[in-house]
Design goal:
The chain is built from 8 helices and 20 strands. It is of the alpha+beta class. It is globular, with a radius of gyration of 20 Å. The N terminus and C terminus are likely disordered.
Amino acid sequence: MTLSAKGHSRTPLLAALFALLGVLCILTNHRVVAAAEDSSSSSSVVDLSDYPSVLYVATPYSLCFGALINEKTVLTDARCLYPFQDQDKTPSEVKGVLDPKYLMVAAPTTNISATMHSILLSTQVYSNISQAGYRASTFMGLVANYVDNSTFYAVNTSSVHAYYPQSQYVDSAEQNFDVGIVTLLRSVDKTETALLQLDDLEANTAGLSALTFSPADTTTNAATQQKLYQGIDLTKVKITDVSSLSRSSCDKNYMDAFDLKNMKSFDGHSLPKNSSPIYCSSMYDNTTECSLDTSIGISSSASDINSVDLNSTLFFVTSGSKLRIVGVGLPHLFEVRSDSSDSCASNGFVYFPRTGLYTDWIGWASSGSFDSDGAWSSKPLPSGNVADFIKDGAASMLSPSIRSTAAVVLGSVLASLSIIF
């Protein structure tokens, strides 16, 4: 058996819009990891309105899932809000955390699909990172025509964890501090909020699910038999049952994959409570190369054309009538495959961000805190809990509109980074 590393591009080239879950792996060879537990899973396509705390965060470069934690604050992943790590080549207007004017939050109402499809297709593709600013400007102009109704919401502030950009230098730390929030100019209409998963996951945690984009609508060219992308129904999502790994199995697989001595031995900042930064699951539906349909795209067959990233995943368990967010972001896959290139048999594990690990930062950045059940509260954090966010070198990574009114002087963060897409 050999380890197959697939799909995690560190160049600015994003050639296709994937309708199914895009599985990303590290572009280096690692030793074979231990076989994961049973990878069987089931999935179904359902209405996103069944999960009223889940919204979309739209940027010029990606469409991401977000979870409403209070009436004006949406939790998402840092990768969504901080798209370009190569800060030397990135146009100044889209360096670092994207400005709120380049963002929009959307609810899954009946008119969302046609509108978002129009916006994303009308926002020109770009052949290299130097053109990313033009794309953002076009996106901003289109968004201005739609916000402030029951579907689309203007963003007031945007922020990511201060240590997120610095973690991206090290493969084994890519998902450390992968958390971001946006606040809205007005409250979301008549919906409920999500909880955060605060405790560790046990093996085979009951009800753990992965929420991804619904399959794309396509037609087939009669002459060439090539699939042609038509659109995605954004009122629908795909829900897949996921089998979580125990903490010991998760950490062992992760350490084996990255040749780590322990879960603290990667470079970078120490994690809250010295905890593991990830959760793990066995492989589930649509996480193997064989079931990833790379023929669906919206731009061009040329490899240098950039389009829109649809790789976001939201992992959750239900808690009564509410969702409890386990992780939101980009799942990574380590595959153990046979030597035969024709074989679709694979084994390995999936790991994804442990979003609830950063409750102190989320609370601080949203001017609140979390109670013992994982619910957001307007009660501020104890002063001792915010020291790590205001000391030198731990800049809040807030948008310019927030930085100008911040009550503390925040340190700078590392600026020379490589692209995440």
